[in-house]
Amino acid sequence: MIISSMNVSNFRNYQKGEIHFSEGVNILYGENAQGKTNLLEAAYLSGTTKSHKGCRDREMIRFGEEEAHIRTIVDKKDASFRIDLHLKKHKSKGIAINQIPIKKAYDLFGVLNIIFFSPEDLNIIKNGPSERRRFLDSEICQLDKIYLSGLMKYNKALAQRNRLLKEIPFKSGLKDTLCAWNETLISYGKQVIERRRRFLKELNLIISEIHRDLSGQLEELKLEYAPDVLEEEFDKELILSEERDLHQGTTSRGPHRDDVVLKINDIDIRHFGSQGQQRTAALSLKLAEIELVKSKIMEPPVLLLDDVLSELDHHRQDFLLKRIGSIQTILTCTGLDEFVRNNVRIDRLFRIDHGQIKMEK
Predict the structure, then answer these.
(1) Tens of pLDDT along 170-199?
(2) What is the mean pLDDT of residues 57-64?
(3) The dihedral of CA 82, 86, 87, 93: what is its sign?
(4) Helical (H) or strand (E) element with 149
(5) Do strands 267-268 and 302-306 pair parallel, antiparallel, or not at all (unpaired)?
(6) What is the CATH number of the domain that holds 197?
(7) In sequence order, what are the beta bridge partners of 348?
(8) Helix H or strand E segment including 320
(9) H-only helix segments in 33-85
(10) Domain of 192, in residue numbers
(11) Is the dihedral of CA 290, 293, 298, 301 positive or negative?
């Protein structure tokens, strides 16, 4: 799977831009704030319909414009796809696959599988549980549309229940309707918990070997699922917490409060690991994601690296660069020193300057 080309108009700082990628290593280089990351964001949008930064559509439209467009051509081993995204300031985005509009973003998932790695991901371990839940959901959703559908329905039920919890103190008659939302929340919540557990089990089989190699056979990395509530106990726990939920106006139990614990040699590295161990584990996590996606869809995903090399020491740089040889990689950087030093093959080189793209190789 590769992105063969991408065309953007009125997106971020680009009035118009077109770029044709190699199936190997593609480097976007230039000074900071020139638009390098914006192109990665456009690629990520094309696979997931969302910004990796969590930005709203209107925030990604060029200043002074009402709309932005992204066209991405994806070549897979058995077919090619054209993905069109039409971002609008005051309306929902429009999406088309092979020029046929789709009604739900759900239908786009799986057309383009993306692994995105940025300096912020190096903090996934020391940041709060929401970061690790986001990691779980972003990857499982690309691989499993059933999970995506269940997660969307769970989140919708959660929002409706929370709204009801806030209204009941003022309209006591509404309490009778709480049971229906409880049933919906429990039904889809159990599905979310089970699928997250299975995903982490699969990821553990891959990540342990990667991390051993990365740490020189000195460390064993393991991911432990820390669900807020077990599937078989969700019904009971939701009922037991009802009075507290009514008092607080929010749902206190469920997979929206899950976490993942990362342990090296059985030690929780969020609390007791060094910064180096945390960064090494984050790198292992991303590399394991790549291998898991490859095993599921039988072809490699597209890897996006946003100025990550500058955040890694030479050993971790070397390890990462040696493992990207068989996967299309689009990465940003301010200089090329790391690639010269590591003798990395550069298949296509682009200089980005004030929203202008110039191919140099």
Answers:
(1) 888 888 889 999 999 999 999 999 999 999
(2) 94
(3) negative
(4) helix 145-167
(5) unpaired
(6) 1.20.1050.90
(7) 26
(8) helix 314-322
(9) 36-48
(10) 125-299
(11) negative
